[in-house]
């Protein structure tokens, strides 16, 4: 019996491995898609060459001290406080999630190779010491400053807010298919019946700038009856629905408010990042920043 079961376990293992691999690949794809979308939005939000940005990425440079060398699609869990970590596995009398440490546990968050790569962007003398001047100090700040990275990430998320709000005004598609089987015994009114129903549905919705919503739907059902006189039937429905609020939540002043806020916020944050970059220079040179960076608001916030 054990020999007969092995091929089944092998098949299920291969299917599970294929599903996990596909999931990791999709994460990589979506991260790359988000990076491309953010840079497209940033480039299209401002025409002034003074605020031009070469590219926005939420991850730190591989040469940075704070660069995460682990797999971003399967990140390990950082080391936790022993007493607090107990709640990850058992809380309020209930067993918690078992997969917190499935990707391992990382003890060191610092990039182990950052010192060896210093000579790639700053001058280093024969004793291995960094030769500091204004230029090298600025390069070190851009490479290792968590506050500078925080400004980049805030601008990145601000651009994603714009993408999310624009998506709400795009046509949304949804479809589904379901099968149901129903058995009725001989003592029921009408006698015994075995009915198989296949339902197919599809719809498209469009949010309008005036606050309305247009819906186009299609539904199709096939019914087969296998007891007594075999019968089959088909029902199809095509419907259109337009809802336009006239008072509450109606009009462009309400429907487009969130999109307007995030579009303006992205433009303001691009300019704020430029001012923060100038302030970072003064902070390195004379120890005073004097400006604030990008701030995330609007949309979901």
In short:
The protein has 6 helices and 8 strands. By secondary structure, it is of the alpha+beta class.
Describe the 3D structure.
The protein is an alpha+beta fold and 301 residues long. The chain has six helices and eight strands, in the order H-E-H-E-E-E-H-H-E-E-E-E-H-H. A four-stranded antiparallel beta sheet has the order 5-6-7-8, with no helix packed on it. Strands 1-4 form a two-stranded parallel sheet. A two-stranded antiparallel ribbon has the order 2-3. It is extended, with a radius of gyration of 29 Å. 10% of the residues are buried. The model is unreliable at 1-7 (pLDDT under 50).
Write the layout of secondary structure elements.
Elements: H1 2-45, E1 77-78, H2 82-89, E2 90-91, E3 94-95, E4 105-106, H3 134-144, H4 146-167, E5 172-184, E6 193-207, E7 213-225, E8 231-243, H5 252-255, H6 257-286
Parallel strand pairs: 1-4
Antiparallel strand pairs: 2-3, 5-6, 6-7, 7-8
């Amino acid at each position: 019996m054990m020999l007969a079961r092995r091929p089944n376990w092998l098949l299920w293992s291969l299917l599970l491995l294929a599903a996990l691999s596909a999931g990791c690949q999709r994460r990589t794809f979506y991260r790359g898609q988000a990076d491309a979308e953010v840079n497209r939005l940033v480039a299209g939000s401002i025409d002034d060459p003074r605020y031009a940005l070469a590219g926005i990425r939420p991850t730190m440079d591989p040469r940075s001290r704070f660069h995460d060398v682990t797999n971003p699609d399967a990140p390990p869990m950082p080391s936790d406080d022993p007493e607090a970590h107990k709640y990850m596995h058992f809380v309020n009398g209930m067993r918690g999630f078992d997969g917190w440490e499935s990707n391992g546990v990382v003890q060191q968050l610092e990039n182990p190779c950052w010192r060896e790569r210093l000579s790639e962007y700053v001058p280093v003398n024969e004793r291995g010491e960094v030769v500091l001047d204004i230029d090298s100090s600025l390069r070190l700040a851009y490479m290792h400053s968590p506050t500078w990275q925080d400004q980049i990430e805030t601008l990145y998320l601000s651009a994603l807010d714009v993408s999310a709000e624009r998506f709400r005004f795009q046509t949304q598609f949804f479809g589904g298919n379901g099968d149901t089987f129903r058995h009725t015994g001989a003592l029921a009114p009408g006698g015994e019946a075995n009915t198989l129903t296949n339902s197919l549905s599809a719809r498209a919705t469009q949010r309008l700038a005036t606050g309305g919503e247009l819906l186009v739907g299609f539904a199709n059902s096939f019914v087969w009856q296998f007891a007594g006189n075999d019968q089959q039937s088909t029902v199809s429905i095509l419907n259109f629905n337009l809802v336009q609020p006239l008072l509450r939540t109606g009009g462009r002043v309400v429907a487009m408010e969130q999109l307007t806020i995030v579009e303006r916020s992205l433009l303001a944050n691009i300019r704020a990042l430029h001012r923060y970059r100038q302030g970072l220079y003064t902070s390195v040179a004379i120890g005073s920043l004097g400006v604030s960076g990008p701030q995330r608001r609007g949309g979901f916030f």
